[in-house]
Predict the structure.
Amino acid sequence: MHNLVCKKENIQVSSIAIIVAIISIIWIIQPAFPIARAGYITLAASIVCTAIAGCSNRKNFDISNLFKNPIFYFILTLGIMYTISSIIYSDRDRFVIGISIGLIMPICSNILDNCSAKKVFLHGFAIGNIISFIFLFFASLIFAPKIYIGQYYSIMLNPNGLSTAILPMLISSIYLIEKNRSKKAKIQTIFCLIAFSFIFSFLILSMSRTGLMGFLLTFLSYIIYLLINTRDKIYVLKMILTILFFSYIAFLLSSLAVTDLSTNILDIRASNSNKVYVFNKKNNGYIASKEVLKLIKNEDGDSIAEDLEKRLSKGSRDGEDISSGRLAIWKASIEQLNLHGHNNDEKFYVPKRHINTNDTHNIYLQIGYFIGIPAMILMWIIMMINIFRIIKCFFRRKHEKYLNEEQLFRASVITMFFVLSMLASVYIPIGSVIGMIFWMVSCWENKEKEI
């Protein structure tokens, strides 16, 4: 009987992993090969994954539990505001976002808010993200050599897009490290450490300050988790040093892979074909082999370490804007806020940058600009409730000895999403993997005895 249950759970985890990997890969290739209605596919996938994880716990599902959860009312109200805005501006996408945020995500969250379903879902989600990174790594190696100066953007053509795709992979690898470590599965733990190290190295290569800041806060929450769960503090220090060592080696190997090795692969491809496909901002697509070889030979810029130093120290030199123009955009967008929002086509002028845009680079201002000030306030409340719950979960534990991996995962998602919420506009559940998982964990309760 036990073997039968384990077999069923393995099938569930594998199915979820495959679906999540496909969705993640869709968003990875989206900038170069746009897939129509990728957001709707993501929404459908989240529903299917929830159904797979919760199919063995149908008797435990009780929709009334949602109404006992205070945060649900704020999320529902935000969804209603999106729905009203969709009617005002005749916008179908806003209607879908409203239904997704206000109803679909909370219901999925409620279905998964029990020990067994949550573990199955998170295990599959984490494995799926690792699979998608393996795809990203080899696609980068073959099709996206770093034959340009500055931030690395891989096949995503945007370094911030690369970091956004990598963040849920980092969270997943941390979760799997702890899941396998708690089971004393040494080989699996080492594999997950290696995966984490290479994922982190790609984040460093992207040189995205938003992504790196999110990682640092998430890693800090992981250290706190280790300190709470481990009596031997020397072991915690050894664990941190091991992770840093693995990451250093992985960074060196990844840097070598996307420069010298990838360039050599491209050279071989170019010598055997009249045209080759290269992911590059300047000439993304099939280009003549002679042009590729010129690009390889003529590119002579700073080393990756020098590029990284320049990127991280931006703003320390005279005349540089440490915010990359965000402060000017925030100021201009705040002046345009109102109670009812704006149409998707409406843009505002940013005097200091001399551009027209409607990307505020801030989730709260983005919601405020498009949906209105009341919706912006609601999003702030939802975020603050999530943060308060994480703090309460981590620090108000007089009788409970340990946190579990599921609580660590939730804390990592909330922490990472909070940083993104301040510096980026990624938040809708049908717009990215990190957006989807944030709304799914937002209605989870602090259940102390799930170990």
Remarks:
- The chain is about 70% helix and 5% strand.
- The chain has a mean pLDDT of 85.
